[in-house]
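Example record used in the benchmark description.
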Amino acid sequence: MSTVLRPENDSDRPAARWAPIYRGLRDAIVGHRLAPGTKLPEDELASIYSVSRTVIRAALQALAHDRLVRLERNRGAFVAHPSPREAREVLEARALIEPKVAALAAEMATPEDILLLRRHLEKEREALHAGRDSDAIMLSARFHVGVAEIANHSILTGFVRDLVSHSSLIIALYWKRRDTTCESHAHHALVDAIEAGEASEAAALMKSHLVDLLSGLDLARAGQRPDRLADILC
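Model output (structure tokens):
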């Protein structure tokens, strides 16, 4: 299995200096404190976090990779703002692709894979119960990528990784129920089916889960007005 669900250690990364800025901005975006469309000027962020613009640029690039930030040539970085149509299309695409991925995972999973999935579910539960909603959303996203990694199909895994990156901000922006983060039943039942090698059951559970995820979004929700970055991030 890939390292997706293994413990992360930012200190082992060459670019570890940007990791705290990445997490701070990620939490502000996913936690609704930074509204969609908010401009993220490098110089202002460098002043807020007391780091160089190079460090800020690395953090923004990582956020752009996760589809939380949009980088525009000659204009700078902005908090991404997926439209309701894009939100629906992303979840619909996931509902087409991920059931197949879950079925493949049920055929390929090893005992070590299952152990890592169950440990990951415990982290999801702890984050949600502690009110760390942004962590819960990101952990839920990582779970889905982890299932795709187990399936061992590089093309489908790439699709899932890209769609899930879209989904994190979509869920944060449009959720109307806290259990939209998949706190309890869906992920646990899915792991049970994967462990049992029940491919058709895993596919059905994934399909139902993603349909329910879409129904848990309020796609009519209006965006909020951005405030000063220093007031939000300090």
